[in-house]
Prior knowledge:
Helix content: 25-40%
Number of helices: 15
Largest sheet: 6 strands, mixed
Oligomer: single chain
Strand content: 5-15%
Distance between the termini: 40 Å
Bound molecules: manganese (II) ion
Amino acid sequence: MATAWLLSPPEVPMQLHIENRQKLIKSLCHASSTPLHGFVFLQGGNEQTRHDTDHTEIFRQESYFAYLFGVREPGFYGAIDIASGKAILFAPRLPAEYAVWLGEIKALSCYKERYMVDMVYYTDEILKVLNDEYQGTGKPLLYLLHGLNTDSGNFSKPAEFKGIEELQTDLDTLHPILTECRVLKSYLEFCLIQYANDISSEAHVEVMRKTKAGMKEYQMESIFLHHTYMYGGCRHCSYTCICATGNNSSVLHYGHAAAPNDKTLHDGDMALLDMGAEYHCYGSDITCSFPVNGKFTGDQCLVYNAVLDSHDAVISSMRPGVSWVDMHKLAEKVILESLKQAGLLVGNLDDMIAERVGAVFLPHGLGHLLGIDTHDPGGYLQGAERPKEAGLKSLRTSRDLLEGMVVTVEPGCYFIDALLLPAMESAKTSKFFNRESISRFRGFGGVRIESDLYVTSDGCVNMTKVPRKIHDIEAVMAGAPWPIKKTVVFENGSS
Ligand SMILES: [Mn+2]
């Protein structure tokens, strides 16, 4: 059955980045008791080549730079004059042969128009321009980006250019404030994340429909990539596709170079597909789990519904002020309850929770902030400590929810020998496991269900539009329609 897909990815209004810059300046001024002078100054990403060769990897903008300026080309710098709010871009001066190999060299005015900034100069003019534009006394002061990414442990690299030592620099102020700006999404940002969700949801459904025993895992990946690029204009994914079937679905980050989605699908396997496209640097992060033959067995229903109940329980409890750590505990509890009801676990639920049995089945965090990065920054405020308990320590945020956050909800239930076997041996936890029933699930793999949620003033909106209930998944896999009404983005202007 042919489906009419929408063939026109949306034009992104640069108003989005104007608003992001205004929000930053407002936050910076709000955080200081005295009027601030100087420039927010960022260096955009540079093109990378493959190892020692001249093969250029496809460029994707650095995320903080993308947030403020939306520039898609490499080699740029950007400044915002804090006093006036004026935005200045600095473009690389391209050599004449660029026009032969890479295309027309654009006039600076083209960048000014496209990116809706106040001024554009060349990168070799930075020092002069900053000196000329500076309204304060003494040497121009630059607020540079330097701070920890709490997911990777890496630090963002402050801008560097020839002559920067002649200016004053501040490395401490900008990072926490700019990061916090990224945590709460504007209406236009919401629209972009919704678009990435719409096209990715559609692609997940397309994969479900085409999945059959005998295929390779990478063919599911290929269908997803084709759909999001062909019909959605998404050149990048938010992360490497995880297309795991059978026991591979208990490998949390399957799909990497050493496990490249290359198993053959067998009748009876569960598939766990964690795939999300990104558009104009804003991403989506969606996981669907289903049997490759299109029909759930009793045991597959049991595990799947345990995770779906957990997913739904969290979503119906989410609202501003709710602690994400509590949401993780709720997710865990619902899964443990289901496993107990099914006879896989025995004993008192509170005792199981106290002994961290939940982390045996759900060892990763419940979810994370999502935006320009899949694991968007800001999960831990400066000075905040990570929880130390098993499972909870993997949380990428321990914060209370705020209106405007986009968070993933991704509970899972996995049968991972490396966790299950020691827990069944441990003096503290062995009593909770019904060995006979659990043995049925060795080699089952796992189930994860992941949706992207936008936190509203009194609840949340699920931005992910894929079949979740077992009868809906079975129907779609058997050919039933699953219309995804694409959200018309950017129509209502900005907020
Ligand atoms: Mn995720």
